[in-house]
Every structure is written in C-alpha cells, then in structure tokens.
Amino acid sequence: MPLVAVAALLGLAVAAGAAKPKYDSSISLKTAPEGDEFVFRGRVRSEQPRCKRRRRVEVTAGHDFSARGTILEGVTRTDRRGRYELRVEAEQNTLGGYRAKTPRKARKRHVCKGARTPVVPF
C-alpha cells in the first residue's frame, strides 16, 4: 500500500512540473480605404516564432461597451512572418472604430497568449 502512495505522489510531481511555457503576443492594426475596399493590415509579434505563424486574426467594428456591441468585419490568418491583410468590400462603419484580436493558441510544447489592439479610429 505505501508503494502505491509513493507512486501517486511521484506522478503528481511529474505532472506539476510539465507545465507548458507561455509566450506573450501583441498585435497591431492599420486601416486604409483603397477604392471600393477597406483594407486592414497589421502584425502579430512574439518572442516565440511559432506564435507568429498562422495565427487567427479577427477584425471587429464598434466598441465592446456599445449598446449595439461589435460586428465581425472578417477573419484571416498571419503569414510566416506574422503579417496579415484583410480586404473588405464595404463602407466605413458607423459604430466608432475597429479592433483586431488574436485568440490564445495552445500548441504541443507551449502556449501563445491572446492579444488585442485598442480601438483604432477610422
């Protein structure tokens, strides 16, 4: 019986020591009208190169605290350098500005923390 208790304690110690390292991320957003399209460009940055590649980026219009909430303008992914571009065939919104965010991403050996920009006026 004591051997089982020791084995259980060793198992807990190994599981506690196996936590994945977490890496911070940051994201930028620039907006520009180009003809009939509205273009969103930016970059995801992180000290871990794998936290830049193929990150999902969501661009929303409006403020979180607004009575009307936010509207999803579009979703894209970053390239291998962490850059993204989203083209939307629409006019500027009347909700007050834009925000980009990238959600948390858990990988096999590490975790990429999520990030979001402040509201960018148009």
| Cα separation of the termini | 68 Å
Shape: globular
CATH architecture: Sandwich
The total number of structural domains is: 1
Fraction of helical residues: 10-25%
Outline:
With 122 residues, the protein is mainly beta. It has one helix spanning 2-17, and strands at 22-23, 25-27, 30-34, 37-46, 56-61, 71-77, 83-88, 98-102, 105-106, 111-112, 115-116.
Describe this structure in words.
A hairpin with a 4-residue loop joins strand 9 and strand 10. The mean pLDDT is 84. Strands 2, 3, 4 and 7 form a 4-stranded antiparallel beta sheet that branches. It is globular, with a radius of gyration of 20 Å. The chain is built from 1 helix and 11 strands, in the order H-E-E-E-E-E-E-E-E-E-E-E. Helix content is 13%, strand content 41%. The N and C termini lie far apart (68 Å). The longest helix is centred in the N-terminal third of the chain and has 16 residues. It has one domain: Sandwich (Immunoglobulin-like), CATH 2.60.40. It is mainly beta.
Could you list some keywords that capture this structure?
four-stranded antiparallel β-sheet, 11 strands, single chain, mainly beta, Immunoglobulin-like, 13% helix
Secondary structure topology:
Blueprint lengths: L1 H16 L4 E2 L1 E3 L2 E5 L2 E10 L9 E6 L9 E7 L5 E6 L9 E5 L2 E2 L4 E2 L2 E2 L6
Parallel strand pairs: 1-10
Antiparallel strand pairs: 2-4, 3-4, 4-7, 5-6, 5-8, 8-11, 9-10
